[in-house]
């Protein structure tokens, strides 16, 4: 058991342990889960020198305030995030931190992740990862199912966050990263039940804007302001569904499924958000407007490849500080 740990002084909003999620378990009713933004997740681990799938902490809107009670470590925060670091050796004077940059924290230091800025999710990682109990070889927490690290729960105030490795050397790094999360055009493929909708309705789906509603979380983004009604029944025999599926229930307000989506669903699916744009959509806050753009499978595959190439360039841009 690790002797190094943080104490959680404030838990933040939906703060959980996450990695890339669960594979090959949907037929048991266990969803994929995992991080909402895989780029920010991988970049955090790369900066720390971890395995790219090392478990880190994901938070939404506001992150935790953590006090390092035992040990020394390197930390990093990725995303569009406002945070402060208070060093015990400097009388706990608060200093604004920079994302995509590693920091040395020593015993007694405090990190306060105050808020995300123009996006929703952010990530916090430590060298060597956290000391957690994995489920089926994954460090992802499925809160609705009570599965995964931390007994399947969000991180709570006053609990200890143990980590695996104590670091005292100042081998710090940083990089430059940009994203298009402010872009409100979401690319999609045709859904398996697009024929359930009239040509007029399909045209309306692509030509008019939707607004992100308050009913949005890691399970899915519910849209409003542009009702989409099926010409057939609003129910179908339940079938397997995936992240990015856009279901249309009877009220006509589409639901875009995210990381913690259910494994089956009985609503017709008009479209599917491409992998590249799922995190973009998830980062758009409540009240933002979005529009959908239809693309081909070939285009979706090219965009996925382009992102992988960009991520490789980002990795190679890491410099010591």
Describe the structure.
This protein has 321 residues and is α+β, with helices and mostly antiparallel strands. The chain folds into two domains: 4-174, no CATH class; 185-309, Beta Barrel (Cyclophilin). The chain is 16% helix and 31% strand. It is built from five helices and 22 strands. A seven-stranded mixed β-barrel has the order 13-20-17-18-15-14-21. The protein has a six-stranded antiparallel sheet with strand order 7-6-9-4-1-11, with no helix packed on it. The model has no long low-confidence stretch (mean pLDDT 95).
Question: Alpha-carbon distance between the termini?
Answer: 32 Å
Point out poorly predicted stretches. Answer: none
Structural class of the secondary elements?
alpha+beta
Q: What's the rounded overall pLDDT mean?
A: 95
The number of distinct structural domains comes to 2
Portion in helices: 10-25%
Strand order of the largest sheet: 13-20-17-18-15-14-21
Strand content: 25-35%
Report on the biggest sheet.
7 strands, mixed, barrel
Number of helices: 5
**Rg, nearest Å:** 21 Å
E-strand count: 22
Summarize the helix and strand pattern as letters: EEHEEEEEEEEHEEEHEEEEEEEHEHE
Shape: elongated
């Amino acid at each position: 058991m690790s002797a190094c740990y943080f104490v959680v002084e404030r838990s933040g909003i939906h703060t959980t342990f996450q990695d890339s999620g669960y594979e090959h378990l949907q037929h048991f009713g266990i969803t994929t889960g995992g991080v909402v933004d895989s780029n920010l997740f991988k970049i955090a681990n790369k900066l720390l020198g971890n395995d790219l799938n090392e478990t880190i902490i994901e938070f939404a809107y506001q992150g935790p305030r953590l006090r390092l009670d035992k040990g020394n470590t390197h930390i990093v925060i990725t995303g569009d995030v406002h945070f402060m670091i208070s060093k015990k050796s400097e009388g706990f004077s608060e200093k604004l931190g920079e994302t995509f940059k590693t920091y040395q924290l020593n015993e007694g230091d405090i990190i306060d992740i105050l808020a995300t800025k123009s996006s929703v999710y952010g990530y916090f990682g430590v060298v060597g990862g956290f000391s957690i109990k994995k489920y089926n070889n994954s460090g992802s927490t499925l809160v609705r199912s009570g599965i995964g690290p931390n007994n399947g729960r969000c991180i709570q105030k006053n609990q200890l966050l143990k980590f695996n490795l104590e670091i005292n050397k100042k081998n710090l790094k940083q990089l430059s990263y940009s994203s298009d999360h402010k872009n409100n055009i979401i690319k999609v493929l045709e859904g398996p039940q697009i024929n359930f909708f009239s040509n007029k309705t399909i045209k309306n789906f692509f030509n008019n804007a939707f607004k992100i509603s308050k009913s949005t979380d890691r399970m899915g983004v519910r849209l409003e302001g542009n009702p989409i009604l099926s010409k057939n029944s609003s129910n179908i025999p339940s079938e397997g569904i995936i992240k990015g599926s856009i279901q249309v229930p009877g009220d006509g307000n589409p639901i875009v499924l995210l990381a913690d989506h259910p494994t089956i669903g009985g609503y017709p699916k008009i479209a599917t958000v491409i992998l590249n744009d799922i995190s973009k959509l998830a980062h758009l806050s409540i009240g933002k407007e979005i529009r959908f753009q239809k693309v081909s499978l070939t285009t979706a595959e090219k965009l996925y490849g382009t992102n992988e190439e960009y991520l490789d360039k980002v990795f190679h841009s890491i410099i010591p500080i």
